[in-house]
Write a sequence for this structure.
């Protein structure tokens, strides 16, 4: 049973517009959430994270929002750039119990010039 | 900086063969991990290590073995390869436990096909 779900396999956005990638989770014990970005033929790279005590974390063009009551988080990229085209993985963990990272299936973002 | 280096990048195995995927990191990280990614799926943890001489099973350990004799190296051994082990394998490392900070450093991956 998937504990971390990314229901959109792909997303296409115009350059300069906002990209919104969504992620849902089922395990209420998760207390730390992350986004990783992956280019073809490369390993994933850490992008941004958020603790469950916050509802927003921002880093430059990237903002992650957490809605604990809905068990939902989203990654906003503003403005989107062609170099953002990649697969984005949502991941979650239970930091308190030294849990492992649980990854979603990923969403492939295409930013068109 | 090399970071995390995996070899080989590609390999085709016949059913029943064995092989070792090599992983080395030059960041002096205590924690190392092996993940696999099946097509259209997320990464799943196979084995991890919290330091030299200490390893433990992850979510999908069956059919694999690991060892950690040095801080730098964390090889993954596949015994009696099966088609279900066709996947892309990622080695990763972190300074602190990955579930605490989430910031894992990944290698480029090793694509394994078992025919």
């Amino acid at each position: 049973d998937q504990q971390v779900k990314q229901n959109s396999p792909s997303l296409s956005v115009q350059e300069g517009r906002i990209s919104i990638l969504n992620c849902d989770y089922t395990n209420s014990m998760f207390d730390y959430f992350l986004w990783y970005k992956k280019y073809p033929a490369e390993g994933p790279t850490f992008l941004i994270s958020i603790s469950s005590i916050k509802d927003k974390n921002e880093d430059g063009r990237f903002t992650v929002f957490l809605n604990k009551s809905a068990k939902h988080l989203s990654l906003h990229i503003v403005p989107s750039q062609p170099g953002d085209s990649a697969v984005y993985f949502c991941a979650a963990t239970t930091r308190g119990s030294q849990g492992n990272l649980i990854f979603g299936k990923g969403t492939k973002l295409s930013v068109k010039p | 900086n090399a970071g995390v280096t995996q070899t080989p990048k590609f390999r085709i195995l016949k059913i029943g063969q064995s092989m070792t995927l090599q992983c080395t990191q030059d960041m002096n990280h205590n924690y190392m991990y092996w993940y696999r990614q099946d097509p259209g799926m997320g990464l799943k943890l196979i084995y991890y290590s919290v330091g030299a001489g200490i390893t433990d099973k992850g979510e999908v350990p069956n059919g694999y073995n690991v060892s950690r004799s040095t801080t730098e190296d964390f090889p993954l051994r596949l015994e009696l390869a099966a088609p279900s082990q066709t996947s892309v394998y990622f080695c990763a490392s972190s300074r602190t436990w990955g579930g605490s900070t989430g910031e894992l450093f990944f290698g480029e991956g090793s694509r394994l096909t078992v025919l």
Observations:
- The mean pLDDT of chain B is 92.
- Helices of chain B lie at 98-101.
- The two ends of chain B are 36 Å apart (CA to CA).
- The domain at 4-114 of chain B is CATH 2.60.40.10 (Immunoglobulin-like).
